[in-house]
Amino acid sequence: MGARVEGIDLRELDAERFAFVHQAWLDHQVLLFRNQTLTDAELLAFSRRFGDLDEAPVQESGRRFVEGHPEIYVVSNVVEQGVPIGSLGAGEAVWHTDMSYLPHPPKASVLYALEVPERGGDTSFCSMSAAWDELPEHLRRRAGDLRVKHDGTYNSGGYVRQGVTPTGDPRTSPGTLHPLVLPHPETGRPGLYLGRRRNAYIDGLPLEESEALLDEIWAAATRPSLTWTHQWRVGDLVLWDNRCTMHRRDAFDATARRVMHRTQIRS
Ligand code: SIN
Question: 91, 86, 92: which is closest to 72 by C-alpha?
């Protein structure tokens, strides 16, 4: 998982180059493009080559998007005149797949770095198809037919989404049930579909059994050997496939500025 694509200016993607990028994305799951200089309109235009876009998700601070572009979600710790310009703060963002608490989560996300701290705020990715391939046999046998609740209470920063009343019971918290193992709709390759750990629940199991099984699967699925960590530079753009990867972000100095613009491509 993970590849760096060089020699491409994403403002000038003809059909042949787009076909190359699209195939590379399916092959490698996460792509990094460095030294890009995109306006918001160009970020939207590149993202739309892959499909229609979803609007920014509702986070702890509501729906934080770029003025006039509700599809550009702002990930940032910056507060201007007492109002956060984005979401997720400066703390750790735990492993997750974007917006999987919804019935139809986006197939891909594009994250573009506008301002980054000197240290920290690295983003790691984990291949869920490799996680499935390497899952111990006794877990593969159990996981095959199960469905798991993807909780919609907390975002990856641990904040409660605006408008949601939190409950500590994973069985009754808001969210969506998805199969625990899913074939990738374009490549056919099977993968785990875990969403996020907090408030996850395996449908139909006693709560303790669900917790124990999820703990075991999560530990196996997020082993460091299955992950890749990216240290951001301004102008980096990362495109990932939400159907076969998860990601997390390291904390960073809260007094530093980190401003990222993200789009979500509809399945
Ligand atoms: C995200 O989860 O989309 C944000 C990741 C990041 O801030 O690096």
Answer: 86
Please state whether the predicted TM-score (pTM) of the whole model is above 0.90.
yes
Q: What percent of the chain has pLDDT over 70?
A: 100
Q: Is the CB of 156 under 6 A from ligand 1?
A: yes
CA 223 – ligand 1 centroid, Å: 19
Structural element, H or E, at residue 112: strand 108-115
Q: How far does residue 139's CA lie from ligand 1's centre (Å)?
A: 29
Q: Which candidate, 106, 89, 58, 74, places its Cα nearest to that of 240? A: 106
Buried b (16+ CB within 10 A) or exposed e, 46-57: bbeebeebbebb
Cα–Cα distance list, 104 to 42, 54, 206, 259 (Å)? 25, 10, 27, 27
Q: Which residues contact 254 (CB under 8 A, 6 or more apart)?
A: 77, 89, 90
Q: Are 258 and 84 in contact (CB under 8 A)?
A: no
